[in-house]
């Protein structure tokens, strides 16, 4: 990259200092050091600006989190005011701060009716650590300490702490660090295109849900504490389950008394066209993890919504719960959360996704399936995914080694679009404030990048 001074240092200077000192998450350190990071210096609405002054349409909302878009003054003001008045106080020793109390109250209002209590954390990973502790504590208190096992799914993402990565079903993560921790097992994911194309989507949804019942019976229902899943798998590649899946999961959890946990870190706060993904998918969780969209990523905050079934036991029979984080209920994070949730309400963003831009994106995104490289393209609210295939008639995938998704992502990066690749699935999750005109602009960029990828594939002879 050429050096061009638009910030305090040149791009090359930033890249050199970055390579010398900053170990990035989920990154091949040496590979990145050779190539150099792209330095993002500012953002407004749905557009980022890099240190070369280039504008980029952020179709990933930062990292699935900037739901209200960049530059919202209400959030900036809330943080500034709270930093001035009380930047920190803890909630450990019989104390509380007004923003934490008010956000707890507001979350009880916008979440489904069974949720009236919240336990705050600093991130989604910590939220899922809390889930593991809480599920096991719940069953202990009920005199069933044998119910230790939590069932999750392959290719799920639940964070990167020891418990989060264990709950997740990413084999690459399990391979580093002796994971999963004991008592966490996985079933196959409800990925129709890869696993179920010989049946209808609806039939496959039931088949996939019954893998949970098989697993519960294999382990013994008296040993299973909970099932956890993302309503739509995000980091795993925006895997949208058939509509029959979650109601059947609910039936199975009810039948065996297993707690149902919805990880709403990505799906929460309007992403799927309802406040929470469980509402879109039609199930009633006992616990919900949240993070990201609660503050639109402006400051870190996460937590667990605790349904009445669990809360009553923890509160009425629990005594002290030996668990918590320094930043549980951080006043600045909660003040920003409060401003953010109120802004989502004031702007009507959930309805905007459900009734306007969600259906508009669905219509235009589905048309990508006409492209010679695209095997399947679908959306749920403002999450979308397409799969790049070698032969769309037979549905033949490219060999993994070609990394076609990364080739496409490279074109996006060079053409002013952030679209993520998960294997050969290209995924988007733009800010909820996106307009129809901006969706049109995004679709033009997506098509251009698909055409450039197709030209590469033809040139390299990958299609035959
Ligand atoms: N649950 C879900 C469903 C997530 O998507 C977490 C938990 C963990 O949250 P924290 O705040 O601890 O990161 C996440 C995070 C990706 C990507 O590559 C996705 C996430 C994080 C990093 C990368 O899509 N999701």
Jot down its keywords.
single chain, 464 residues, alpha/beta, Aspartate Aminotransferase, domain 1, Aspartate Aminotransferase, domain 2, 2 domains, 7-stranded mixed sheet, 5-stranded antiparallel sheet, 17 helices, 17% strand, binds 3-[O-phosphonopyridoxyl]--amino-benzoic acid
Can you put this structure into words, describing what you see?
The chain is an alpha/beta fold and 464 residues long. The chain has two domains: 12-71 and 349-460, Aspartate Aminotransferase, domain 1 (Alpha-Beta Complex); 73-347, Type I PLP-dependent aspartate aminotransferase-like (Major domain) (Aspartate Aminotransferase, domain 2, 3-Layer(aba) Sandwich). Helix content is 42%, strand content 17%. The chain contains 17 helices and 16 strands. α1 packs antiparallel against α2 (29-35). The longest helix has 25 residues, at 436-460. The relative contact order is 0.14. The model has no long low-confidence stretch (mean pLDDT 96).
According to CATH, the homologous superfamily of the largest domain is Type I PLP-dependent aspartate aminotransferase-like (Major domain)
CATH level 3 topology of the largest domain: Aspartate Aminotransferase, domain 2
Largest sheet: 7 strands, mixed
CATH domain class name of the largest domain: Alpha Beta
Count of DSSP E strands? 16
Q: Which class of secondary structure composition applies to the elements?
A: alpha/beta
> How far is it from the N-terminal to the C-terminal residue, by CA?
34 Å
Give the distinct bound molecules.
3-[O-phosphonopyridoxyl]--amino-benzoic acid
């Amino acid at each position: 990259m050429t050096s061009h001074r638009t910030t305090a240092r040149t791009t090359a200077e930033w890249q050199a200092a970055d390579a010398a000192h900053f170990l990035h998450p989920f990154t091949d350190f040496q590979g990145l050091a050779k190539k150099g990071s792209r330095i993002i210096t500012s953002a407004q609405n749905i557009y980022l600006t890099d240190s070369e002054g280039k504008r980029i349409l952020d179709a990933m909302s930062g990292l699935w989190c900037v739901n209200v878009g960049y530059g919202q003054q209400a959030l900036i003001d809330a943080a500034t005011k709270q930093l001035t008045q009380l930047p920190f106080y803890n909630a450990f020793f019989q104390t509380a701060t007004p923003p934490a109390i008010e956000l707890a109250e507001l979350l009880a209002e916008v979440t489904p009716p069974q949720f009236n209590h919240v336990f705050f954390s600093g991130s989604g990973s910590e939220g899922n650590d809390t889930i593991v502790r809480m599920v096991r504590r719940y069953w202990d208190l009920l005199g069933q300490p044998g119910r230790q096992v939590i069932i999750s799914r392959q290719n799920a993402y639940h964070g990167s702490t020891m418990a989060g990565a264990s709950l997740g079903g990413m084999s690459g993560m399990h391979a580093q660090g002796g994971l999963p921790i004991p008592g966490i097992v996985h079933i196959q994911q409800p990925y129709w295109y890869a696993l179920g194309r010989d049946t209808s989507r609806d039939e496959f949804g039931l088949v996939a849900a019954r893998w949970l019942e098989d697993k519960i019976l294999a382990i013994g229902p008296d040993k299973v504490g909970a099932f956890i899943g993302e309503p739509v798998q995000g980091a795993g590649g925006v895997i949208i389950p058939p509509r029959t899946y979650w109601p059947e999961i609910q039936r199975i959890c009810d039948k065996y008394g297993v707690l149902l946990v919805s990880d709403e870190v990505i799906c929460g706060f309007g992403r799927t066209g309802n406040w929470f993904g469980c509402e879109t998918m039609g199930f009633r969780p006992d616990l919900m993890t949240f993070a990201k969209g609660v503050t639109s990523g402006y400051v870190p905050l996460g937590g667990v919504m605790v349904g009445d079934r669990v809360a009553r036991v923890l509160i009425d029979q629990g005594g002290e719960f030996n668990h918590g984080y320094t930043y549980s209920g951080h006043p600045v994070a909660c003040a920003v959360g409060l401003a953010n949730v109120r802004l989502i309400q004031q702007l009507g963003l959930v309805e905007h996704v459900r009734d306007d831009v969600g259906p508009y994106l669905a219509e235009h995104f589905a048309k990508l399936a006409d492209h010679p490289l695209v095997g399947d393209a679908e959306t749920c609210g403002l999450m979308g995914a397409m799969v790049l295939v070698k032969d769309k008639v037979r549905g033949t995938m490219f060999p993994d080694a070609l990394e076609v998704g990364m080739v496409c992502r490279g074109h996006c990066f060079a053409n002013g679009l952030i679209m993520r690749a998960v294997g050969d699935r290209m995924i988007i999750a733009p800010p909820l404030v996106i307009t129809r005109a901006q969706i049109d602009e995004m679709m033009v960029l997506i098509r251009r990048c698909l055409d450039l990828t197709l030209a590469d594939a033809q040139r390299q002879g990958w299609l035959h």
